[in-house]
Amino acid sequence: MAHLESDFLKVSNEKGVGWIRLHRPEVLNALNRQMVADLVGLLESFDRDENIRAILLTGGPKAFAAGADIGEMAQATSVEMLHLDPFADWDRIRHISKPIVAAVSGYALGGGCELAMACDLILASESAKFGQPEINIGVMPGAGGTQRLTRAVGKARAMEMVLTGKPITAQEALQAGLVNRVIPVEKLEEEAMKLAEELASKPPVALRLAKQAVLKAAEVGLEEGLDYEQKLFYFLFSTEDQKEGMQAFSEKRRPLFRGR
Ligand code: HXC
């Protein structure tokens, strides 16, 4: 299956991992509408491709993304923003069923931080800086920043980040629970690829449902969440991969998962 590169995205596909690099370095990967639309289209096309089992999203050494493109929004009126509905594209990211690993070096600010948080796992290089600086340009986060950040790091830190606009370092992001790991800059992509390949080796249906169940925890109460988890758990007993996984364990061999 062919996956289209675009002006601002570099793409490859190896070892079951669909790999996307944000590439608009002259403006620190500022996310214009076309870039977001292309990115979302690509994520959906990876999601439909049976040969891809995990997705890796990265940027450049200086920036993962320094936010939405300010120039594109500067003169817009409320009504124009309402009609443009830029968040319709962003919202499609949460329906991607395959796990997405974000590998972040340099700035992940505003929409860049929100994009990383819309992924499932975040690996940060030692140079990464996460922040929601929208307050400094007269607005506030709009692509999930007040919601996902607060769920990830708690009210105290989220409030400080959103109200002061001051970014936090990779180490602070690790302590706060925003990222999974901090990695030396030169090792970031290698480690992110290893993690994505590891995910790609897992049984795809279980991987997809497990992702859904973890995301559900942020949305519903415990009783509903546990009920949802149990239903997905039972469902997995209808897959060949469950039979294969358990049989391989008994036979002391590696399982061969086919996504069925
Ligand atoms: C458009 C941007 C940009 C952005 C950087 N650039 N961020 N252009 N939108 N978000 C451009 C600069 O204008 C400049 O272009 C070039 O990238 C290099 O940036 P510099 O500022 O010269 O680099 P530096 O001094 O190293 O400072 C880096 C920085 C700063 C601290 C990241 O660029 C910055 O504060 N950027 C804005 C961050 C921000 O406010 N993000 C939130 C956006 S709102 P030229 O042509 O001058 O060389 C948002 C809402 C999300 O994300 C809602 C989703 C729709």
UniProtKB/TrEMBL annotation:
Name under which the protein is recorded: Probable enoyl-CoA hydratase echA8
Classification via SUPFAM superfamilies: ClpP/crotonase (SSF52096)
Protein role: Could possibly oxidize fatty acids using specific components.
Catalysis performed (reactions): a (3S)-3-hydroxyacyl-CoA = a (2E)-enoyl-CoA + H2O; a 4-saturated-(3S)-3-hydroxyacyl-CoA = a (3E)-enoyl-CoA + H2O
Family: Belongs to the enoyl-CoA hydratase/isomerase family.
Record's keyword terms, sorted: Fatty acid metabolism, Lipid metabolism, Lyase
PROSITE patterns in UniProt: ENOYL_COA_HYDRATASE
EC number(s) per entry: 4.2.1.17
Single GO term (MF): enoyl-CoA hydratase activity
Top-level class of the enzyme under EC nomenclature: lyase
GO biological process entries: fatty acid beta-oxidation
